[in-house]
Amino acid sequence: MSATPSLSRRGSAARTPGGSPRKAPMAQRTPMSTSTTKLMMATTPASAGAPAPLHASVSDIPLTPLDFSVMYAKIDNFMVTFNAFISGELAGTEMLREEHEVGMSLDREEIRSLRSDVEDAQKEQSELWEAIKSQKDADAAERADIGKLKSTQFSLGSRRSNLESELRELERLSESKRRQQDGKRQQLSMQRGRNGGELDRLSAISGINVRPTKVPNQLKISFNLLNPDDFAAESCFVLDLPTSDRSYHIVHCDPPLERARLEEIAGELSRTRDPYETMKRMRAEFKSMAEEARTRRRRMV
């Protein structure tokens, strides 16, 4: 590559700016002078055997002109051809360079496109792996949930079987208790039919009447025949039957007694479980209160 510019410079030196071959100067095309030719012939030996004369005259030297025009023309023709070759080679090289640069640019664009495609493919592959991992985790969680559901289903099936057995047993016991209650209800109905008149006569004689209230688990116990001035006057109290705490409570009393006295009587009933003793105590309390009221009225009269 370093020799090409020098050749082109040499070629350019032999050509005119218009492109035509430059002619050599006149001094180069003029034949040598006569003296110079004679001097050269004097210094050249005439033959191998005869020594050259030491002092030759100018007239003895032959005057033969040297013509270099053909050589100059061939040199000019060579330089023109060589410069044309060099110019063609340079133009071809420039075209190849431009084609190479265009090809390199296209290759770089293609490489960038391939790199972008590779990055997109790697990104899509990463997203795909993430989606696969998420799907695997979801599948594992679903399988775990399915296992739990199957275990729960099995336990619920066992529990259901046990509950059905317990339900059948409860239905059997409930049916048995219902039959027993029906039997007792029939017996009580029959007993009430037989003892109804006797109970009415006992209530008329003793002045004691026991009946349930509208509130569940409560009994109203009333007394009359306590005041000789008015045997129809009624004294009563309401007894709350025990449910969960197994304790009796007196929730109402007419005429009223002291709260502490009522709690004492209810507490004794809860301990002894003897309602007849409680009824006797309450009748005694009402009897005492009726006597006191009767005495006060007599004093006022």
Automatic annotation (TrEMBL):
A biological-process GO annotation: cell division
Native source organism of the sequence: Tilletiaria anomala (strain ATCC 24038 / CBS 436.72 / UBC 951)
Segments of this protein annotated with the region Disordered: 1-34, 170-199
Family that this chain belongs to: Belongs to the SPC25 family.
Complex formation: Component of the NDC80 complex.
Pfam families in the cross-refs: Spindle_Spc25
Purpose of the protein: Acts as a component of the essential kinetochore-associated NDC80 complex, which is required for chromosome segregation and spindle checkpoint activity.
GO cellular component term of the entry, any: Ndc80 complex
Residues of the Chromosome segregation protein Spc25 C-terminal domain: 216-287
The keyword Metal-binding belongs to this UniProt entry's keyword annotation: no
Subcellular location, record wording: Nucleus; Chromosome, Centromere, Kinetochore
Compositionally biased intervals (Basic and acidic residues): 170-185
Organism ancestry: Eukaryota, Fungi, Dikarya, Basidiomycota, Ustilaginomycotina
Main subcellular location of this protein, as a coarse class: nucleus
Keyword Nuclease: no
Coiled-coil intervals: none
Origin: domain of life: Eukaryota
Keywords: Cell cycle, Cell division, Centromere, Chromosome, Coiled coil, Kinetochore, Mitosis, Nucleus
PANTHER family registered for this protein in UniProt: KINETOCHORE PROTEIN SPC25, KINETOCHORE PROTEIN SPC25-RELATED
Stored CDD domains: RWD_Spc25 (cd23784)
Protein name per UniProt: Kinetochore protein SPC25
InterPro entries, per the entry: Spc25, Spc25_C
